[in-house]
Amino acid sequence: MPSSHARLLDRRALVTGGSRGIGRAVVERFAAEGATVAINYASHEKEARKALEAARAAS
Fold first, then answer.
1. pTM for the full predicted model
2. pLDDT tens digits for 3-53?
3. Which of 31, 19, 25, 29 is nearest to 56 (CA)?
4. Tell me, what DSSP letter sits at residue 2?
5. How many independent structural domains does the chain possess?
6. Of 49, 27, 29, 23, whose CA–CA distance to 38 is shortest?
7. Among 25, 1, 3, CA closest to 37
8. DSSP for 28-53?
9. What is the rounded distance in angstroms from the CA atom of residue 52 to the CA atom of residue 31?
10. Whole domain around residue 29: which residue ranges?
11. Is residue 54 within 8 Å of residue 24, measured between CB atoms?
């Protein structure tokens, strides 16, 4: 079984609503598991940037 960090290696994910709440948690988890993640948000740019920073730290 692959390590949890590599489970989503070479996979890509688009997370809508990724700046806050459940969407942000998904962004962080997917990044921690090795995925390349794109974040979509409607109006919370500051929160989306924070989510991006958290995803980078998790990967």
1. 0.82
2. 566 889 999 999 999 999 999 999 999 999 999 999 999 999 999 999 999
3. 31
4. -
5. 1
6. 27
7. 25
8. HHHHHTT-EEEEE-SS-HHHHHHHHH
9. 10
10. 4-58
11. yes
